Amino acid sequence: MIAVYDLQKLLWDVRKDLDLANRFRSEPDAVLDEYGIDGEERAAMKALDFKTLYERGANPYLLYFCALQIGVDRAEYYAKLRGEVS
Amino acid sequence: MGQIVGAFTASHSPGITGFPERAEPAQREAVEGAFGEVRRRIEELAPDAVVAVSVEHFTNFFLGNLPAFAIGTAGSYLGPVTKEMGEFLGVEQHDYPGDAVLGAHLYRFALESDFDPALVEGGLAFDENFCVPLKHLDPGSALPLVPVIVNGVNPPWPTARRCYDFGRMIRAAVEAQDDARRVVVLGTGGLSHWVGMPEAGSVNEEFDRDFLDRLESGDPARLTDYTQEQIDAAGNGAHEIRTWLVTAGAAGVPFDTLVYEPVPAWLTGTALAAARI
């Protein structure tokens, strides 16, 4: 298991900070740089690939709350999580 | 000396207050009827304070510092944490009163009893953990609370045995003080549900009914005979049954199930129970 703390910190901060959530939507690379997120996690965050993030060990509560905060609705979140849509 | 005059457990699914209409009408009626019954019982008990045991869902704590147990000793608590969450839960944001004296006593008593909870003197906000059940059970937010938080959101978790024993410690703590003579313990969470996981919307009725059967037996050996993996079978949200185990330990007697309804529309196996005190 890779260390997912930095990723989870981003998920948590987004959940608590709507400004950060909006900034992630408008300039994801800048935010991902600030949190030091690279590799597959970075690609998955940019693509809102919740299935990969979940499989990489992100806590599902944090993942779900982050998704809602950045404007992904519940049905879309679960469809992505289940790999029904990409 | 103080005594525990009542102990109750309830699910805290956001759907209960946020979107009750999505459940089957008969299920909604059964659940709301049970909440009404518990509210009447608590009113009759006229407690001086409520030790409210639940998880919290990354509303306050994070993986940078995640307590297995925490005790609130504040004089008030904000809930829901944001106005947006308030709209989602159907609960207007407001302050809940805290019993700071009983909270401080419980914290000190825990340490002296070889438990090591986190101390939370202020800044603890509520999410659905307390806001959902208390909307039904104490709509005027008149009851002074001592919040106890158990980690139910991120593994590894405190064992079932440890949770039950934490509850026994709460009972001893209540009996070792005189400021709050009549104390109710309220545990909230569970039963089976999956949050943010592919299985979300499922209910593991077999797990839920077996758990309630153990709770009705009052047998500590059966109640604490759970491995992490056995609870996983009912979802990440099922780990919130730890709050029921704490409450069962505090009560020390069998419980009666007041309602059980598997409610996929609320994403949970939804139940309320009352200790035979």
From TrEMBL, chain B:
Q: Which residues form a coiled coil?
A: none
- Keyword field contains Oxidoreductase: yes
**Gene3D superfamilies from the entry?**
LigB-like (3.40.830.10)
Domain (Extradiol ring-cleavage dioxygenase class III enzyme subunit B): residue spans on this chain: 7-266
- Which UniProt keywords are listed? Dioxygenase, Oxidoreductase
Q: Which Pfam families match?
A: LigB
Annotated Gene Ontology MF terms? Answer: ferrous iron binding; oxidoreductase activity, acting on single donors with incorporation of molecular oxygen, incorporation of two atoms of oxygen
Q: What SUPFAM superfamilies does its record include?
A: LigB-like
Q: What is this protein called?
A: 2,3-dihydroxyphenylpropionate 1,2-dioxygenase
Write the lineage as a comma-separated list.
Answer: Bacteria, Bacillati, Actinomycetota, Actinomycetes, Jiangellales
